[in-house]
Amino acid sequence: MNILVTGGAGFIGSNFVFYELEKHPEDRIVALDALTYAGNLETLKPVMDCENFRFVKGDITDREAMDRLFAEEGFDIVVNFAAESHVDRSIENPGVFLETNILGTQVLMDQARKHGVKRFHQVGTDEVYGDLPLDRPDLFFVETMPLTASSPYSASKASADLLVMAYHRTFGLPVTISRCSNNYGPYQFPEKLIPLMIANAMADKELPVYGEGLNVRDWLYVEDHCKAIDMIIREGKDGEIYNIGGHNERANIDVVKTILKEVGKPESLIKYVKDRAGHDLRYAIDPTKIHDELGWEPETPFDEGIKKTIRWYLDNEEWWKNIISGEYQQYYEKMYADR
Ligand code: NAD
Ligand code: DAU
């Protein structure tokens, strides 16, 4: 099979490329990425010379370029990871989120229709369900919940999901959608909570915790997400939506304290800062459907995954130190200076 992985130089996309090449050496993987600030070609270096792998620099909103690529490659499956993915950036600058996350998805689906792709898989997020209250631990996100959104990022992802289901119903495009909770693991850009806290702790910099740090996220090790998508694109039912999550809820402050303990740094580095606008309180996934229908189960418990992740960031300082120079420094100053 010939599989297009968009956003393949980003965090989850690159982990998915590695997962697929290892698990299905008989398949061909084409990674497409615009190499925005979040995409890093360095990440794909270990697989660049693989015979069944190709990297293409390109923008999913570029209709002509996508048309050429789909015509040339004749993809069987498209897995769309490409997106603007950081909530804080969407609050600063929503426009590019709408362009990439909504219009880019439309361009890809038009090409999938035109060139007879057998499955278009949209990598969605649990943020499209809005949030859950902190005092109702009995509530979880299920696939049938109506969509709602708190940030321009989640609104753009919810819009894309709606568009995907509309293309399925109106045009008969074979689709699946997955909605996963917060991922962590190697190659995550250090603007996101876990790698940011590891990087700051290592540099003895303050750890900026939004509000009181009581917001809850449901953490999943990235490889478990990749395994779920792999199962969905091969065995998932056309037109279905699958939630992905491992029942691993933690308050942000507990995650931050765990990291400090693991790297041997004092809690005095924690600085409570101004809260994120519209900050979602709690995410929690009910993964019953993917478990019952496809037999998916997460394999990496948080205590093990966080240790592996910290070890990876300690062993790969060059990877993240390179990418946090330049544009990211300006972003960091702007986002955190007045908090
Ligand atoms: P990321 O920001 O690390 O990677 C996104 C990649 O997309 C980058 O390599 C970037 O260069 C590329 N990209 C951006 N705009 C593009 C464009 N116009 N054309 C082509 N490539 C473009 O994000 P991530 O955390 O790996 O997330 C990947 C996907 O998974 C996103 O769709 C996100 O919404 C979804 N998701 C993420 C999480 C999470 O916790 N990180 C959880 C659930 C779902
Ligand atoms: O739930 C899935 C989503 O998870 C994905 O769709 C998004 O692409 C991904 O970025 C992530 O969104 P979050 O907003 O949950 O992740 P982030 O790492 O930005 O923040 C996690 C929590 O930590 C959130 O409650 C905000 C808080 N936070 C974050 C940063 C960057 C802080 O307290 N301080 C910080 O500096």
Give a verbal description of the structure.
This protein has 339 residues and is α/β, with parallel strands linked by helices. The protein has a domain at 2-186 and 221-247 and 278-301: NAD(P)-binding Rossmann-like Domain (Rossmann fold, 3-Layer(aba) Sandwich), CATH 3.40.50. It has helices at residues 11-23, 63-73, 87-92, 95-114, 152-171, 193-202, 222-235, 252-263, 288-294, 302-315, 317-323, 327-336, and strands spanning 2-6, 28-33, 53-57, 77-80, 119-125, 175-180, 183-184, 207-210, 216-218, 220-221, 240-244, 249-251, 270-273. It has a 7-stranded parallel beta sheet with strand order 3-2-1-4-5-6-11, with helices on both faces. A two-stranded parallel ribbon has the order 7-10. β5 (119-125), α5 (152-171) and β6 form a beta-alpha-beta unit. The mean pLDDT is 97. Bound molecules: nicotinamide-adenine-dinucleotide and 2'deoxy-thymidine-5'-diphospho-alpha-D-glucose.
